[in-house]
Amino acid sequence: MDVRTNADALQGGKPSLGARIGNIRWSICAMLFVATTINYMDRQVIGLLKSTLQLPLGHGGIGMSELSYGYVVDAFQVAYAVGVLLAGYFVDKVGTRIGYMVIMAIWSLSAMGHSLANSVFQFGIARFCLGIGESGNFPAAIKTVSEWFPQSERSLATGIFNSGANVGAIIAPLLIPIVCASFGWHAAFLVTGVFSMSWIALWFVFYRKPTEHPRLTKGELNYINSDSILTEPSAQLKGVNKDGKVPWIKLIGFRQTWAFAIGKFLTDPIWWFYLFWLPGYLASRYNLDLKHVGLPLIVVYNATTIGSIGGGWLPAPFMKMGMSASKARLAAMFICACCVVPVFFINYTNSVWAAVALLSLAAAAHQGWSANIFTTVSDMFPRSAVGSVTGIGAMAGSLGGVLLATSTGYILQVTHSYFVLFAIAASAYMIAYFAMILLAPGLKKVDLTA
After folding, report:
1. Overall pTM surpassing 0.85 (yes/no)
2. Which of 23, 386, 389, 434 makes a 20 to 30 Å CA pair with 247?
3. The pLDDT value given to residue 245
């Protein structure tokens, strides 16, 4: 299929009259959803098995302490921080078709490699390798969305594929206890391998860029390319490499890059905290074992699915009211930040279901925030830079996760209390929101033509 020019693609920001738009882009979004589901199934396993791994050697565990568990999480976060920066550049360099397959293969083999670990050190090595592989999922997915969706649909598409994180976190509590009880905890790290290999094969067969996809209609291609700033030929942009990619040093000079990075630095660690410590919190605070912690977790992560898709949809009614896409995005993010604040009161409840309600609201709001903050990258940058900027921001989020994971391990080892941790969780999003407003008012688009 030939590459259409901007003049052909744009018809007043809408597909040309009489053109059949089609829905191939939503099939691509479905594949991103499945990939993210597998991604979070793989990373959720260790949190579910935390209590089992803390059992003494010879009694079914490896004697993992709160502090050493924090170090294992740190190994993942450090690798993720390094890997995500490289992954963003890698995906921009080789493209989403090949890049995503390589990324999926690395993290799947690393996840299965946990089954060979029998000590904290070995778990640390396996977790480091998993972090390298999993770091590529979001840069690849966000870049794919920027290639396949117009600006008006990106936050919804991001919210839909991002909800795979919640589905993965729901499936894992249902599946892992059964596998662990039947075959032991080593086997629990092997169950997602078959899903990963199947996805890689399907992606290789069916995925193409919009301009190369044999089933894409001209109407849908025109619709995808209806945002003119992101379809400018790279030859018109200054300061880019010969291959049309924007170098990191240039991207770091933009306030918009820092706005996204700081937003991720402050809020990503809260999601990591929920993911890796929530099963342990429910177990210690409410005496729930592996068999009974599953239902509260399923309730929380079902709520996050609603939050992810709902948060991605939320800018749409604001745009219908006359707001620009950027202002609508910021309005949605502010609402999500407000909805996180009540989680502070979890420190004052003794009811497991009251705690689940507060956690559900906060985690759902995080996913709504996440769908929108990811989309700010394609709001502010051209497609040639989306993978790299996403990688820079995700690296910042992982570094924040390292700091919080280490702090959490020490805090719980010394105080056995989650009070400070939930206070941090309650306030992080408001701080991030106003920091982003100061650095990038209105999410102004970068000017690479100057």
Report:
1. no
2. 434
3. 63
